Amino acid sequence: MSSSRATALLAAAGLLLTGCSEMLLHRSSLDYFPLIRGSEWKYLVGKDTAYYVEVLGDTPVGNATSTAVAVNFLPEFWLKEPTSISRYFYRDTLIGSYPDVLEERYGLVYLLPFVSGNSWQDSFSQTLYGLDTFDYHRRLEARVSGPEDVPVPAGVFHDCYRIEFTEQTGGSDTTTVFSSEWLAPGVGLVKKVIGTETRELADYHIGPLTE
Amino acid sequence: MASTLLVLLIVSGGFDAGARISGAFPAGGLARNHSQTAILGAHVGYSTGPMRFELGYDYVSLPGLLGNPYSLTVQQASVNSGWQFVRQPDWGLEAVLGGGYGIAGRSYSRSSESGNVGLGQFGLNFIQSARKGRLTIGMLHTLYVEARQAETYNIALSQLFAVRAGVSYVF
After folding, report:
1. Structural domains in chain A?
2. What span, in angstroms and rounded, lies between the C-alpha atoms of A208 and A195?
3. Which alpha helices (H) appear in chain B, and where do they start and end?
4. Would B6 be classed as within a structural domain?
5. What would the mean pLDDT of A123-145 be, rounded to a whole number?
6. A173 at interface of B, judged by CB pairs closer than 8 A
7. Is residue B95 part of a domain?
8. How many beta-carbon pairs under 8 angstroms link A with B?
9. A16-43 pLDDT, tens digit each
């Protein structure tokens, strides 16, 4: 067999073998939560309500340099590391007539990379002492499923992972919130269901718009 | 009869078999979640003139970053053809081209996903030959090819760069 025939045979075999694959290495290579300055996302809730998300840039918050993200013009601070993504949580309350900080820290939100079936938790608790004792706790549980294709107004996104969150927050009473997020590679959040509300990606661009 | 033929082939042809080890470095997007690793493999080859054909098996296990319990594994079989473009009595330089098939898996703690992947390889080897031995040191670039039929036909490529050393016993 000549070398050209052998090479052609190998190339043909390779194409046949890749005819359908699960895109596993592809998913291992992509960024599911791009925090690139200038990126913008627009989400629709029904037909009339819109959410706008914009990456503003890096800023020092707490003991780390996080990325400031405006969600409907309100700032959130995200810390993206190679194996996790955390959000800066700041919550306070009035104990008697004085404000007191309940929580001020980076709490784990996503554990990277996403693998279907993986799960994680993040817990925080604190007791504040004053005239009354105040117990605060917050617990976030997350579980990954997928990958799946997600059709939204901005298009059909492939290889999306679904993250199901259960967040319990409270003191003497506990509030539980269930939510689901679908994250697409290279795009980020494309759909979110929280309670009866569904937010779907309508428009986006990653990185600053070029003239 | 078959065993006689096999013996005749081994005696008359340039068969060899051996093992190899590589230091592999994920390139491009794979570097986002993986660090470098060692690849272990085995091969059988047949040489005729400047040409060599090789069947190989390699086990790739790419660990996650910062020691997290994540890994990406590929068990891959490949067919390569090599052309020795510099041939000296006891050494040479060989260009390698080939392809193959792999079974890939990702795991994080007790969660896992699996899939299959096609692959193409090209590389360059320095070869030193002794009487019954063949030493190979070279560079190999593996291009993993994945495809999907959606609204359009999508092809995704992932890359792994390896520095490889192998030893073979020549029959």
Report:
1. 31-205 (2.40.360)
2. 32
3. 2-12
4. no
5. 89
6. no
7. yes
8. 132
9. 555 567 899 999 989 999 999 999 999 9
